[in-house]
User: What shape does this take?
Amino acid sequence: MRIDSPEHKERDWLFLAIALLCGLLLRMDVIIASQYVIDADEAIVGLMAKHILEGQQMPVFYYGQHYMGSLEAVLASWSFMIFGVNSVALKLVPLFFSLIFIIQCYILAKEIWNRQAARISAILAAIGPAALVVWSAKARGGFIEILVIGALAMLFSVRWLKLKDPRSIAIVPIGLLIGTGWWVNNQIVYFVPPIAFAVFSKCIYLEDAYFFDKIKKFLSIFILGVLSFIAGSIPFWVYNLGHDFASFGMFNAASLHEAFDHMKGLFSTSIPILLGAKPFWAETEYFSGATLVMYCVYGVMALFLLGCRFSSIARLFKLEVDSQNPVELLILLIISCASIFALSSFGWLVQAPRYLLPMYVAIFPLLGITLSCMQQRVQVVPTLLFVFVLVINVFSSYPGRRAIPGEPFVFKGERVSRDHQELIRWLDGKGIRWVRTNYWIGYKLAFETKERIRFVVFQDPLQARIPSYEEEGMRFGLDRIPFLLTPKQAEIVKQGLERLGISFEQVQVSGYVVLYNLKRPYNDLRQVEVGMHASSTENTERAGQAIDGDLQTRWPSAKPQSKGMSFQVLFDEPRTIRAIAYCLGEWAHDFPRGLEIYAINPDGNEMLVLSKEDYAAIGYLAYSHTACKDDSMLYLKPVLAKGFRFVETGEHPILDWSIAELRFYE
Assistant: This one.
């Protein structure tokens, strides 16, 4: 079935060089057009690499996670050592692996079929769909690296299958690769079913071997495979032995209903994205009918391949794989990717199928094999199909413009700014070294300034991937840290600050609003510690625990939050109150879903001092805080009151309303 000839061999390196050049130019065009911009998740890999370069302890996994090994960060630290700490040096790592992947597609298709299939496979991998091109330069924790590791494991498996009587020890490189992949990115699991199937098939169909010899062979291969897998994934196991096997917490299966939805999304959205009919995070097509046309073209090729390989595919049901031309290994890989994705909890990511990138390991060689088979029967059709696929791939990267992904969303449709240079100059000019800002803005800013400017996480997503930032920021003092916000965020935060009585200055820079020079109105507050009595409409016998000075106790409503619940504190004598602190302690989840506060005047009348609208703004401002801190203080214009009444204006179907401690200040 092969068409190897000396003259073809002479051109192999030249063809690969051309394919690599095409792949490099396409990827560099996208990278340069994006101005080498990285997002926060890439910045975290960069920060990991910077810390490794500085001699800090090497992390086992991506910061803040128990999965996605640090291989990419380690390699990025080497790049930083040569080129300095910058986004270009960071992107060189995935870019390098993406070029290696092109070579692997060539070798894999050639090993399974022939040189013509290899060339088609390589050129389609080089000039791939936008999804592959974009992720070829994203340092997001091993997504492109796992394609290289998986493709290498598949290549070794194909060569192992071709041996008439393979030695058991020959399985070790495959086990080591899968083990390394298990540490780097758990998507390596997609490659396990097809490889395991092929190994089992080879063992039971060994020629000139008795049944017990076959069993013995399989057991020896299985044991060596498991041991080499463990050896390759040593960092994973050492970490988990010391952390109660935390990594396994991510392995959650989808329900039957969810799996069905995932499978529908796979065919309606994910596969069209992977094949260039739709962009990431979009339901719209690049052109009307793109998905239908794509399925028709790929469907024709799939049916042709099915016809050509029908007998070999049928033998799969007898657990037999064609050991000399194991095309079915690639088909099994696609089935494995689709099935595991749909059955996993990650299957909801149908609009951003980065967890399906390993499909490309099978897609490009299969395209090459199919078109090569066609070429032996007809001349024009395979050429037209090849050109069509190539055009779709190119068009997906240039649909009227370059398919550069947008920056992450921060709040109500507002995105991270692409260029932070103006912001950085302003912050440096003011000597500002800490900001409170969104995850997507903060980590990007920290990397761009080489951690000269750091941040405390503000609002969703609340995950602090570098805990030392939060700890040092708290020690620095939250009340001293400026806010770095999108314009719509700033509207809410300004309302909250104003209602809290905190003054500030503001400036617009790089598309953001910076609120800085925060000042509190009083520095001479004195806490009221005696002469208070508490009562409530619910669970009043425990009301006193909200004013007992102990953050470890609380008043709970003892029933789900509902509108109209109230909590009241009366003083022995009227006092001029200038501030109130509402502390949640360990019960942050029991915060009131809506709240109004009334001051009770000496004559018994009530005056509204905090509206539910103001409370919503303050709640947004203090969302990330769970205990009683300075910035939980509500500053008031001095008000003479004999008490205060707190009224719940929201509701929750399950959670109590809790108060760990109320503090009043004169």
User: Anything to note?
Assistant: Residues 625-631 have pLDDT under 50 and may be disordered.
